[in-house]
Each structure stands twice: as C-alpha cells, then as structure tokens.
What we know:
mainly alpha, 7 helices
Amino acid sequence: xxxxxxxxxxxxxxxxxxxxxxxxxxxxxxxxxxxxxxxxxxxxxxxxxxxxxxxxxxxxxxxxxxxxxxxxxxxxxxxxxxxxxxxxxxxxxxxxxxxxxxxxxxxxxxxxxxxxxxxxxxxxxxxxxxxxxxxxxxxxxxxxxxxxxxxxxxxxxxxxxxxxxxxxxxxxxxxxxxxxxxxxxxxx
Length: 188
C-alpha cells in the first residue's frame, strides 16, 4: 500500500515512458492530490483501500486506474467517456491500457497493522459475581448488665449464667460509667 504522495510518484514514473501528455494543454500531465481525490469522489478511481489514522492508502489498482485515465486523456478523450469505458474494468483491462512497468507495480512489505484498542463497549458485560454464601445463622440472646449495656451471647443463658456474666462485667460497667457511656437512668 502506498500513501497518496507515493502513488503519485509511481504514476509520474509510469507516465514518463510512452506518454505525450494531454493534447490540448488544459489537462495536467500528472494528476495532483486534489485531482486524485476528485477522481475518487466521482467514481473514476476507486476510493482508498484503507486508512492509517488520517492517511489514505492506495494499491496497485489505483495506480493502474490513474495511469489508464492519463493515457486515455492523452488521446483527447473526455473524462466522461473515460469513466464510461473504465467503469467496472478488470485489473487486466486496466493493465493493458495503462502499460505500467512491472517494477512500479511491486509493493514493499505490508506495514505492521496498527494496534487495535479493545472495544470494551461492544462486549457484553460480565455476569456479576455470586454473593458470598450467608454465614450459618444462630440465635443470640441478650443479657442486660444495667445502664443500658447488653451483652449478646449465643444460646440461652440460665439465671446462674446471667449472675456470673453480670459479676464479670462489673469492671467494664465501671469504666463505661466513668466515661459517660451508660444511660444513667437505667443504672443498676
């Protein structure tokens, strides 16, 4: 593939052999960038084969088309007649009209393809992860300690258990009271 400048260099080189130029002098001997773009817009020449960013890329068929157009123009033919003749022409037909030297038709190695950014918006969203399994549930019972403090314990405490828990919690209750963290109306 060639850029437009590279394509025009090849067109110029192809036309140096056996090309007398346009007979009326109103037509350029070699098309410029603007003419090539106009030819593509009107369908006289195929649109670019690819784009690399904002740079149009052309191939062998474009070279054959442009040289064929210029050779037919040098015979005094109008663009409308040339367009009618070349519409749908095969590469073989274009090559016979254009008579482009083989060395100009050779292309260098294809450039490496551009890195393609992932199209994250085109992919379906992944299914949400399953919620974790709930922990095994068990019953809690509260043991009132006074001052609004309650200790939660698994299982069901007996009256003796409640008395022992209250005795063990006495230093904690004193600390909470000293810091003003207990409800004074419910003190024991």
